[in-house]
Amino acid sequence: MSTATAAMWTELLKARRSRLPWVTAAAFTIAAGFGGLIMFILQDVRRARALGLLGTKAALTGGTADWPAYFALLAQITAVGGAVLFGVIVIWTFGREFSQGTAKDLLALPTPRTTIVAAKFAVTTGWSLALAIQTYLLGLVIGAALGLPGWSAAVAATGLGKLLLTAALTIAVVTPFAFAASAGRGYLAGIGALFLAVFLAQVIALLGYGPYFPWSVPALVTDIAGPGRQPPGPLGYGLVAIVGIAGTLGTALWWKHADQDR
């Protein structure tokens, strides 16, 4: 077994023995179910009020209960929820070595530090994509149970493509949190960077500069700001790619050259 494969299996074993995969899977399951609830309400608002799902003065406007709308909502859930949960996955994967005092033991192994970093990123990427695919599959089941109209193979393929694009963009912009957790030698710095990025993404998007702020781009791809708003262009996608590359390389270089004294 090569060192890369061994490092990969080690990271997978750490994740499997943790409760975090179950927590993140449960969170995305609830999110997909919430999206289904929104579709159920939009199907018949009067029925929803009669069942107590809406207050007498509450209203939902501008939405339609069909497959394209549900797929768009699932993509938005992936963007918003992924910004937090994908970030938490990355922060936990890199920060746990320092919080649990296993960093020096890990680096004492005859495995290149960059290989360890690559294995960690491979596991976090696969983990995050698995959550996105889980959301899509749950959406298929929930949408079919609701009898949503507008189904076609093309609509389903388009929905899957947008959801995976959103997930990939979100995975890219959370890579700097790995550097923050590593350089901060624990979870705190990574969580702080995550909260700051999520806050700025909301504020800058509201100001109209979201297409030029990498952490706002994944949500804007899903048309979360509504039709007619400026979508991300090549510059926005390019900035996301730069952030992803910088976060990955920066983390690898830090692990390779930093003194690990604890």
TrEMBL record:
The keyword Oxidoreductase does not apply. Pfam families: ABC2_membrane_4. The chain crosses the membrane at residues 20-42, 69-94, 129-151, 163-181, 193-215, 235-255. Keywords: Membrane, Transmembrane, Transmembrane helix. This is ABC transporter permease. It comes from Amycolatopsis melonis.
